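pipeline: protein-struct stage 2 | run 1193 | Cyanate hydratase
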Amino acid sequence: MEMERSKASLVSSIMAVKRKSGKTYGQIAEETGLTNVFVAQVLRRQAQLKPETAPKLREALPGLTEELLEEMMRPPMRSYDPNLIQEPAIYRLNEAIMHFGGSIKEIINEEFGDGIMSAIDFYCSVDKVKGVDGKDRVVLTFDGKYLSYTEQKSEHMVSRVRD
């Protein structure tokens, strides 16, 4: 039985195809109709490539083999390297969320009620804009479905519903 390739090996092969293409995540996003962050997630095996999108990705990145496309269409093992926090860009993102998180949570509660933003029904993009001072600025958009917490009434539990 053939041993499955490791995630790291797959990602390495996929990223080599992207590098060889010379395209940015933004260019691939435009060609596939996906967001730039979702393209990165698919290529890094953090999101599943849907069969209807595979031909568009193959056209955008012709170097992708059938084997790589098939792997990318399998549900991925979503994970992260715990050392990732040591990368300064990641550390600063985490710091920003920790610093602004309490205020963001309060505004979510004020605007929506007691609940959270989904990270599953979720869109994310990174954009570059010029600030009022003419300097480059990073715009991160987190667009997640609102999910309210449920009052847990015993009568609503399926396991407790009797015939």
